[in-house]
């Protein structure tokens, strides 16, 4: 067929360009290193082929037979919209006595689902109670009594008030779901059958809404004691004017009041998940649907053993020095120094405790881990974000070849998918099983890549997607995260070995990342 | 995440050690269905797994039920001969389990009733002493419809009832299992880790499950179901440049035409098969999964354009992109042989496990697809997967139960619609040839002589091809 008449036809003549280019490459028989770039990537954004190809079939899109054909990818990539999650409308109603880790589970679940881009909010009845009481106290000067007697079922007036709070909080949750939320977590004791029946009945009035009850049972005295200690020592306003001893006694009395009426879930028709001693025993009942089963599996994998997670990027690589992205280059001289110094830093920090090292399959991470005296595992899923057609180029080269596309990526980096490569969202999807495994494990050191560690770090610190691609993860620095009840403690150790800075701030702005604290919120969000 | 990254010196995976899964349950509670599904899943992930079925062993060594002494299944006093016979069968089965573990096997699923606490304890202690992890897997039912359905569909076709009158067989079998109920003890002891599955997944109880592999097993069991549905597979249409992964090129004109034809053919096939089962087309939704690659997503485009017809939902899944050819992107096999002779040789020797520079091996691809597979198990609607040859190969291998080494050789020709219907003991699969054009010619071998640059991994050639029904298109003849 005549290629001039039909520009969208890919002909042998056109493709012979590729052959000619390939045959022009001379092989060096003495070359000892892997021939990573012999021959050059034919459809890389640095070569002429991609532009020629896009131009040659631009006409085919205009003349396509399909009704309103969707756009092709041209240039070096495009923005990809967030998947449609609007069908997901789930009420997760917590069930459990005080100090059984309900808020802990709510908070973990929220972080996990937010990281996967679901819109999640915790509606904590305790927060609502405190903030309403505070408001009342500010307006009228009257302080409500919120000591244990308030939580007694014999206290008719207080019981009515507490019922009202639970109802109001559920109504707020449902309104929020109607306005576009995906998962609303009702963090309250919901300890009786009648309360649960009310929740179920209320949610069933909303079309397409689903309820799951999540019961946290704990009969390990040590675990309960730790939760009680955390409660009375963490500045709970309920105990603001009490000594620790008084607070503890009052809190234990409050638990007693609940125990008197507590009914574990036995209603056979309910959709529920019961977790005993955080993951030791789990019952899953009538959990249907995709997101519900993910939630159940996630919660099954949690544990409370103290541990730390260490992140380090690979030592400075030769591509880092040259300013190139992607590739599979070995370490620079300074990178090798880092690899040599790393074992002492880790061992000083962790002592005799067991540790497992995870690397990607790329040699710069494997080389960085080579001297570490621990068990090492390689994950394909930890490979760096695939820059597709831009792999192996410098940012300057990309900007020079595709100035408009380059600017588009800066506008919305999280959603931008490199052609023939990945977006940050794609990486999050790929890392989800890694997060699941990380939750199951104890001490782990990940020798990873910039984009990968940004995604993992955002999970542990609950950072929004828009900020994620700008998180600073410098070279030659170890980040130590220690999970706490409501967040992670962080320490950073920078080794005095120089390295290039590969961080590119968002042009025209300098976002200050707000790390979420590890403390508990007692009043909910600031208005 | 299922990966051989956990391979230990002993050849076992995931540092999980050896595991004996002891099934517990009265007859006709779906133990065999669960055992076989789990075996297929674990084998696909590379774990050496074997179901050892007491019933099969008994039939093999002693013959069908009519050849057994009359007190073999009844309760109460048994003659010494029968007791010895039963002991012999159990010992024989246990020997098979030991043999499998000793020859490098990792997981055994012991498919038997194990209905008393005492029996379970004896069995568990024996294997626990040898350092083998024990997991009790109970399947119970309090819904008589499920039990009777199971008896009718599975049990009376067993060799025990060859030549029996159907109703007689049902009655006999029902009596056999009713007797068992009196002595049955559900798994309530927490001595050993357990998973209790009630009414085929309606409720699942889990006790003290440890480690990665065991948690995967639980997640898998949480997601399987036995409702009727059909899974269709088709390749994406022909694109402007087939041979480049990076270019992510769009459909060419033949590809757009293919997309229209695929839509018509799928809807027609599905309407017919639903009608044959007495189901209404409107009752069920057709879910379509595509990858995030243009050629795949755009092949689903005509489904999105239809104004009426069955309800359709199209989901784009980034995990379902084709195998990444790494540095070989854009090259023909000849060029790869020329520039990467050593790597090519290793690839040809073991195309499943070998990972070319910067590329994915088929094993890497299976690992990437594993979460999708769990979603596929969970899906209850009819599903059409419009994908790439490499991806369809991996998923088909799982559904059909092919060994990993055969995955790269499965033929997935463009222009075939592959229809897979899961059943209790496996799947029915059938391919329908509905289209010819670029990317498919030469009598359906899939090789297109005009396409110089087909990606080696997306090549459609293969040794194993589902049985193909030729569908003559009226318009063509």
UniProtKB/TrEMBL annotation, chain A:
One of its GO terms (cellular component) is cytosol. SMART domains: PGAM (SM00855). GO terms for molecular function: 6-phosphofructo-2-kinase activity; ATP binding; fructose-2,6-bisphosphate 2-phosphatase activity. Residues 500-527 are annotated as: Disordered. InterPro entries: 6Pfruct_kin, 6Phosfructo_kin, His_Pase_superF_clade-1, His_PPase_superfam, P-loop_NTPase. Gene3D superfamilies: P-loop containing nucleotide triphosphate hydrolases (3.40.50.300), Phosphoglycerate mutase-like (3.40.50.1240). Residues 83-306 form the 6-phosphofructo-2-kinase domain. Keywords: ATP-binding, Hydrolase, Nucleotide-binding. Substrate binds at residues 313-320, 364. This is fructose-2,6-bisphosphate 2-phosphatase.
TrEMBL record, chain B:
SUPFAM superfamilies: P-loop containing nucleoside triphosphate hydrolases, Phosphoglycerate mutase-like. This is Bifunctional 6-phosphofructo-2-kinase/fructose-2,6-bisphosphate 2-phosphatase. InterPro entries: 6Pfruct_kin, 6Phosfructo_kin, His_Pase_superF_clade-1, His_PPase_superfam, P-loop_NTPase. The lineage of its organism: Eukaryota, Fungi, Dikarya, Basidiomycota, Agaricomycotina. GO terms for cellular component: cytosol. Pfam families: 6PF2K, His_Phos_1. It comes from Cristinia sonorae. GO terms for molecular function: 6-phosphofructo-2-kinase activity; ATP binding; fructose-2,6-bisphosphate 2-phosphatase activity. Residues 439-477 are annotated as: Disordered. The keyword Electron transport does not apply.
């Amino acid at each position: 067929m005549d290629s001039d008449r039909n520009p969208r036809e890919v002909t042998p003549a056109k493709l012979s360009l590729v052959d000619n280019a390939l045959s022009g490459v001379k092989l060096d028989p003495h070359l000892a290193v892997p021939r990573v770039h012999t021959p050059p990537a034919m459809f890389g954004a640095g070569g002429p082929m991609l532009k020629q190809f896009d131009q040659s079939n631009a006409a085919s899109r205009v003349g396509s037979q399909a009704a309103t054909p969707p756009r092709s990818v041209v240039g070096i990539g495009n923005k990809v919209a967030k998947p449609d999650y609007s069908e997901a409308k789930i009420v997760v109603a917590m069930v459990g006595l005080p100090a059984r880790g309900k808020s802990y589970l709510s908070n973990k679940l929220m972080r996990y689902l937010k990281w996967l881009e679901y819109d999640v909010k915790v509606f904590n009845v305790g927060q609502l109670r405190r903030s309403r009481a505070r408001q009342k106290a500010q307006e009228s000067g009257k302080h409500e009594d919120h000591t244990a007697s308030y939580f007694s079922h014999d206290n008719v007036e207080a019981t009515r008030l507490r019922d009202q709070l639970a109802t109001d909080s559920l109504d707020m949750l449902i309104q929020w779901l109607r306005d576009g939320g995906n998962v609303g977590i009702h963090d309250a004791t919901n300890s009786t059958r009648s309360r649960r029946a009310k929740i179920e009945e209320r949610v069933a009035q909303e079309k397409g809404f689903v309820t799951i009850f999540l019961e946290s049972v704990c009969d390990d005295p040590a675990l309960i004691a730790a939760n009680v200690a955390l409660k009375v020592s963490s500045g709970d306003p309920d105990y603001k004017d009490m000594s620790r001893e008084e607070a503890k006694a009052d809190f234990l009395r409050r638990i007693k009041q609940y125990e008197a009426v507590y009914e574990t879930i036995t209603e056979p028709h309910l959709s529920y998940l019961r977790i005993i001693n955080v993951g030791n025993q789990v019952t899953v009942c009538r959990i249907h649907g995709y997101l519900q089963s993910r939630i159940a599996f996630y919660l099954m994998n949690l544990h409370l053993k103290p541990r730390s997670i260490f992140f380090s990027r690979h030592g400075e690589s030769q591509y880092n020095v040259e300013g190139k992205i992607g590739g599979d280059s070995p370490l620079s001289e300074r990178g090798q120094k880092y690899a040599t110094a790393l074992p002492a830093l880790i061992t000083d920090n962790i002592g005799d405790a067991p540790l497992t090292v995870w690397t990607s399959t790329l040699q710069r991470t494997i080389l960085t881990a080579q001297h570490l005296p621990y068990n090492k595992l390689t994950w394909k899923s930890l490979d760096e974000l695939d820059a597709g057609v831009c792999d192996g180029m410098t940012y300057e080269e990309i900007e020079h070849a595709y100035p408009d596309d380059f600017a588009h990526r800066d506008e919305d980096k999280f959603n931008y998918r490199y052609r023939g490569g990945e977006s940050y969202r794609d990486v999050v999807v790929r890392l989800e099983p890694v997060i699941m495994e990380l939750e199951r494990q104890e001490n782990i050191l990940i020798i990873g890549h910039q984009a990968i560690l940004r995604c993992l770090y955002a999970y542990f610190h609950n950072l929004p997607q828009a900020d994620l691609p700008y998180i600073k993860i410098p070279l030659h620095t170890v980040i130590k995260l220690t999970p706490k009840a409501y967040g992670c403690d962080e320490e950073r150790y920078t080794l005095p070995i120089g390295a290039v800075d590969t961080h590119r701030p968002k042009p025209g702005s300098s976002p200050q990342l707000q790390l979420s604290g590890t403390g508990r919120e007692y009043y909910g969000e600031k208005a | 995440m299922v990966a051989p990254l956990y391979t230990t010196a002993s050849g076992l995976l995931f540092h999980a050690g050896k595991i004996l899964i002891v099934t517990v349950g009265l007859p006709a509670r779906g133990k065999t269905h669960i055992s076989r599904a789990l075996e297929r899943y674990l084998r696909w992930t590379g774990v050496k797994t074997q179901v050892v079925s007491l019933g099969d062993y008994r039939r093999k060594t002693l013959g069908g039920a009519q050849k057994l002494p009359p007190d073999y299944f009844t309760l109460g006093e048994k003659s010494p001969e029968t007791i010895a016979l039963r002991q012999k069968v159990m010992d024989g089965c246990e020997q098979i389990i030991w043999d499998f573990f000793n020859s490098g096997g990792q997981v055994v699923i012991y498919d038997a009733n194990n209905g008393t606490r005492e029996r379970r304890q004896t069995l568990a202690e024996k294997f626990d002493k040898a350092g083998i992890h024990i997991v009790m897997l109970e399947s119970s039912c309090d819904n008589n419809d499920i039990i009777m359905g199971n008896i009718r569909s599975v049990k009376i076709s067993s060799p025990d009832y060859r030549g029996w009158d159907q109703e007689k067989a049902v009655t006999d079998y029902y009596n056999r299992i009713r007797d068992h109920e009196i002595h049955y003890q559900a798994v309530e002891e927490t001595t050993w880790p357990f998973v209790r599955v009630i009414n085929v997944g309606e409720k699942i109880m889990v006790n003290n499950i440890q480690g990665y592999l065991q948690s995967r097993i639980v997640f898998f069991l949480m997601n399987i179901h036995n409702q009727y549905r059909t899974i269709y597979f088709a390749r994406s249409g022909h694109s402007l440049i087939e041979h480049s992964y990076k270019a992510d090129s769009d459909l060419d004109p033949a590809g757009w035409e293919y997309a229209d034809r695929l839509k018509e053919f799928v809807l027609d096939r599905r309407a017919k098969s639903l009608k044959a089962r007495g189901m209404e087309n409107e009752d069920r939704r057709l879910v379509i999964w595509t990858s995030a690659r243009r050629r795949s997503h755009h092949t689903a485009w005509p489904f999105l354009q239809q104004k009426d017809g069955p309800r359709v939902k199209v989901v784009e899944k980034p995990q379902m992109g084709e195998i990444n050819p790494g540095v070989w992107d854009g090259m023909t096999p000849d060029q790869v042989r020329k520039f990467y002779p050593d790597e090519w040789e290793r690839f040809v020797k073991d195309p499943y496990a070998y990972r070319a520079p910067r590329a994915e091996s088929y094993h890497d691809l299976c690992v990437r697809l594993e979460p999708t597979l769990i979603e596929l198990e969970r899906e209850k609607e009819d599903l059409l997967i419009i994908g790439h040859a490499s991806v369809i190969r991996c998923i088909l291998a799982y559904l059909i139960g092919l060994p990993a080494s055969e995955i790269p050789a499965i033929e997935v020709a463009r222009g075939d619609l592959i229809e897979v219907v899961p059943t209790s003991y496996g799947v029915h699969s059938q391919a329908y040839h509905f289209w010819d054009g670029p990317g498919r010619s030469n009598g359906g071998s899939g090789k297109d002589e005009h396409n110089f640059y087909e990606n080696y991994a997306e090549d459609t050639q293969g040794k194993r091809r589902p049985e193909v029904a030729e569908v003559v298109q009226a318009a063509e003849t």
